[in-house]
């Protein structure tokens, strides 16, 4: 999918929703006359507002809302890698590009200047319960691989809070000239081999550091019925905005307060020196154990095992 423009921006002057102001370089116009429509500033005869490319119908899920009637396997007549590359190039002629199920699609997208790789780690909830999970060592391999990919396209992870631990560890290991890969497994080596073959791992870009937030700690989710959750993947409500202000729920609900206190975490997370910047996925802990403060099931780190403990203080913070 490639978008030619244009996130809807809040109109600060009026407080009404609408497009960005004229002259900001965005291609939609904020209505100034109460119009219910946001106008496209380009000639739509010259190019589309948005291009959607159904790269594949292969998907392991079976969402009820899916219009594509997804199937497990790729269609034999899907576009080849070369054809897909040409299509993306043509999209770029309109404006700028962006989708991972098709071989080499990551490189094709990268070549067209993609700005971010957004990676979701499975939380076994809803239909996701039927999907197979990574083992903790495999999750570790994937996290380190994603860190390496960050040299090409910045990486953002969802429900992989230990990516922050990996980022800190890799920085310190690099400072010491130590080999990060010696404790990693075959999945890491396979992923790296394939990525290097596709030119996806380079040493040229500035990394995008992961943001230090977690469920209820810098993050809040309001459902379509107004229930306030620490995360969209965590079906524990702390109140409803129909009854209490969101600010009040976020700041003082016991659930949110507990999630912001790393000393209340259980298992390895509770004993972990990285708990103030990580804390693991509270959603996955809850989905797997029923205890929102239990240890992160997909983390393979043994607290205290990182060899350069004295270097950590400048990267961690006290709660
Ligand atoms: S043990 Fe918990 S706090 Fe420590 S790195 Fe793993 S997920 Fe994070």
Could you characterize the architecture of this molecule?
- The chain has helices at residues 81-94, 105-111, 136-149, 163-175, 186-197, 246-252, 254-259, 267-271, 282-289; strands at 2-3, 9-10, 17-18, 28-29, 39-40, 50-51, 117-120, 155-158, 214-215, 218-219, 221-222, 228-229.
- 27% of the residues lie in helices and 9% in strands.
- It is globular.
- The chain starts with a strand and ends in a 30-residue tail after the last helix.
- Among the domains are: 115-211, no CATH class; 214-296, no CATH class.
- Strand 11 (221-222) and strand 12 (228-229) form a beta hairpin.
- It contains nine helices and twelve strands.
- The chain is an alpha/beta fold and 319 residues long.
- The strands form six sheets. It has a two-stranded antiparallel sheet. A two-stranded antiparallel sheet has the order 2-3.
List the helices and strands and how they pair.
Layout: E1 2-3, E2 9-10, E3 17-18, E4 28-29, E5 39-40, E6 50-51, H1 81-94, H2 105-111, E7 117-120, H3 136-149, E8 155-158, H4 163-175, H5 186-197, E9 214-215, E10 218-219, E11 221-222, E12 228-229, H6 246-252, H7 254-259, H8 267-271, H9 282-289
Parallel strand pairs: 7-8, 9-10
Antiparallel strand pairs: 1-6, 2-3, 4-5, 11-12
Helix pairs in contact: 3-4, 3-5
The structure holds iron/sulfur cluster.
Q: Given the structure, what is the number of helices?
A: 9
| Strand fraction | 5-15%
List low-confidence stretches: 1-27, 96-101
| Mean pLDDT across all amino acids | 79
What class do helices, strands and sheet pairing give?
Answer: alpha/beta
Q: Output the radius of gyration.
A: 22 Å
Named once each, the bound ligands are: iron/sulfur cluster
Shape: globular
Spatial gap, N to C terminus: 41 Å
Q: Main beta sheet: strand number and arrangement?
A: 2 strands, antiparallel
Query: How many β-strands, per DSSP?
Result: 12
